[in-house]
Amino acid sequence: MKDQLIIFDTTLRDGEQSPGASMTQEEKLRIARQLERMRVDVIEAGFPAASNGDFESVRAIAETIKESTVCALARANENDIRRSGEAIRPAARGRIHTFIATSPIHMEKKLRMTPDQVVEQAVKAIGWAKEYTDDIEFSAEDAGRSEIDFLVRIFTAVIEAGAKTINVPDTVGYNVPTQYANTLRTLIERVPNSDKVIWSVHCHNDLGLAVANSLAAVLAGARQVECTINGLGERAGNAALEEIVMAVRTRQDVFPCDTLIDTTQIVPASKLVSGVTGFPVQPNKAIVGANAFSHESGIHQDGVLKHRETYEIMRAEDVGWGANKLVLGKHSGRNAFRSRLQEIGIVVASEDQLNHAFARFKELADKKHEIFDEDLNALMSDEGVTPEHEHFRLLASRFHSETGETPQAELTIAVGGKETRTSAQGSGPVDAAFKAIEAVAKSGTELLLYSVNAITTGTDAQGEVTVRLSQDGKIVNGQGADTDIIVASAKAYLNALNKLHGKLEKLNPQL
Ligand SMILES: [Zn+2]
């Protein structure tokens, strides 16, 4: 019997800290349900001390998720830990994950604490957490640049105090595989009772080594990997869940452990996270990229046709490709619509919302004959913005673009419920639409990114537009989907403005 490798997903916490990747509570719940369906062991749902919104999201996930452990992150102080404890209270299985910095540079410059004070604070933190749960994880922030003797000391103390999982994060993505594996091996050898806890790794991808470092640590004895869907995360991101899981599954001859993940849920999870955050997946991305299983080269194709294993080490269907079968069409009824939403994890709050969503589904089905799961996700993301957060809303549009003429956009927008007409010219119809919106909104934002992706295949596919805006250092992503990409662009711009309009300040822990 092989050891179990625990998969700890932090898409909703670390992943959400990518600039512009913030998600609504409804979006987080949808992702959490997909993670549960994929049989992720631990879902890090958020950082409850960051804001009331974060607290409520973690609590809602704790109320909803039954199979996976729901984890809340807390700095090693009493307030953070009590907020986390309250947030996970409804969970079937709840974990508190507390952390403190242990590298000399962080202790001295950031915490302004002596090493003795840091150990004392960590032990106190475990004590507060124990009032809420026995499932306590401790992280030594910036462990990758900490002194090994100090790590041995603090880990010994927190295990003695009751921590059950010990995480050794490479917070700044500085480590390389053999050296990082050595760190893990040394800690496991030197820390007393190291066999009574689970050793965990959390690697950042600044040097492109997050997955390699995580896997090297697993070979050295780590039995939990912290990772995110599509490798989402701060800066260059985290270790990609899909790569960790498939490397371990495919190379069972090398790894002494395996995960419980249902790998056929990987591609649906990837598409969901990409759709919600507006971060497209590069085509050559391992496992979940559009080209990951396509064989363009004639020589390869011939080999694959003769015998699949000549060039394929995994099967596309094992990771969930091809599962997005035609689900609904123009003649699908309300019940079929509702039950498909349920199957992909979307819960409609009320009959009113269902009726409204169904009407929009019918409109879409008139323009596009085949409706896939990705279309439903995009449709419901648009629905997800609650009316109180929808300060700007597109009511009607008209675009003009002709050879030799200046492109023109005329829009009717509801601003705080008041109908407003606006128009502008631009270098193209998208530029004209954005200028027309700005003429009314006067947000003074800077456009950092604009991208269009086809949600599914075919020329009648919906275009999904992502717009990233920056205003006084705040960065948000807006999304919009429509079969007309100019309309999708206007929706995405307004969606981003709505997020800026209702946005609260929040705190991002570095871990
Ligand atoms: Zn991190």
From TrEMBL:
One of its GO terms (molecular function) is 2-isopropylmalate synthase activity. InterPro entries: 2-IPM_HCS-like (IPR050073), 2-isopropylmalate_synth_dimer (IPR013709), AIPM/Hcit_synth_CS (IPR002034), Aldolase_TIM (IPR013785), LeuA/HCS_post-cat (IPR054691), LeuA_allosteric_dom_sf (IPR036230), LeuA_bact_synth (IPR005671), PYR_CT (IPR000891). Its EC number is 2.3.3.13. One of its GO terms (cellular component) is cytosol. Residues 5-267 form the Pyruvate carboxyltransferase domain. It comes from the Bacteria. Catalyzes the condensation of the acetyl group of acetyl-CoA with 3-methyl-2-oxobutanoate (2-ketoisovalerate) to form 3-carboxy-3-hydroxy-4-methylpentanoate (2-isopropylmalate). Homodimer. This is 2-isopropylmalate synthase. It comes from Aromatoleum tolulyticum.
